[in-house]
Write a structure and sequence with these properties.
CATH superfamily of the largest domain: Aldolase class I
Number of strands: 8
CATH class of the largest domain: Alpha Beta
Strand order of the largest sheet: 1-2-3-4-5-6-7-8
Helix content: 40-55%
Number of helices: 12
Order of helices and strands: EHEHHEHEHEHEHHEHEHHH
Low-confidence stretches: none
Mean pLDDT: 94
């Protein structure tokens, strides 16, 4: 079970990484376009890879076999942790087969909406297959069923392709995706933040700390050693 962050925003990535539970990142052209202002695409991706130090998916925008392979080879040459997102389709499957079998480039087949597409992605040699939870739901179909079927097939047939679930829109989507058998769920930062929150959790912590403070003030308990007040610096900031 792994959580990736679905963003290209550097501040969001830094914050999420500081929680210690993120093991990768995914981007796409739409996500990259959310980063305002002129910037070098290569520099941005390398900054993300430098922070995450785990797989980072970068998507091609060419739509034919030759174009996808050429674009993929450029992006993958930037860093060993870059995984190339290739769109599901005939040209995409051709590109995946070429990249995985002959170019030593890891791929992530993206925009999968059905089990049959996930089967093709795995058989073409893809390292990852990305099922789009929210967009399947938009069509009126059950994304949980697609994830369950795909996960069961991959496990039964001992297929090495890792199953990623994206297009996450609610906390419940995350829960259902993992329960259905996802290896990885990639989540936008706002949803990740909501996963940490629960009114009852906050109420409980406030109650415990209030009681502890009251005990100290009344002299009913003392600490053998006071906790020193000092500013801590997150280790990641010193590594970059």
């Amino acid at each position: 079970m792994e959580l990736y962050i679905d963003t290209a925003n550097i501040q969001e990535i830094k914050e999420a990484l500081s929680w210690g539970c993120i093991t990768g990142a995914t981007t796409n052209p739409k996500i990259m376009s959310n980063e305002k202002g002129g910037y070098s695409f290569k520099d941005k991706i390398l900054e993300i890879v430098g922070l995450v130090k785990e797989p980072v998916s970068v998507e091609v925008t060419e739509e034919d076999f030759q174009g996808m392979v050429g674009e993929a080879k450029i992006y993958s040459s930037w860093h060993e942790n870059i995984v190339i997102k290739i769109p599901m389709g005939i040209e995409g499957l051709k590109a995946v087969a070429q990249l995985e079998k002959y170019e030593n480039v890891k791929t992530n087949v993206t925009a999968i909406m059905a089990t049959n597409q996930a089967i093709l992605a795995a058989l073409s040699g893809a390292s990852y297959a990305s099922i789009f939870y929210g967009r399947i739901s938009d069509m009126g179909y059950d994304p949980v069923g697609v994830i369950k079927e795909t996960s069961a097939l991959y496990k039964e047939l001992n297929i090495g392709t890792k199953l990623i679930v994206g297009s996450i829109r609610t906390i419940l989507d995350v829960n259902k995706a993992f329960i259905a058998g996802a290896d990885i769920v990639t989540v936008p930062f706002p949803i990740l933040k909501k996963m940490t929150q629960n009114p009852k959790t906050e109420e409980t912590i406030k109650e415990f700390n209030s009681i502890w403070k009251e005990m100290k003030e009344k002299g009913l308990i003392r600490l053998d050693q006071e906790i020193p007040a000092r500013k801590l610096t997150f280790a990641l900031a010193n590594e970059v």
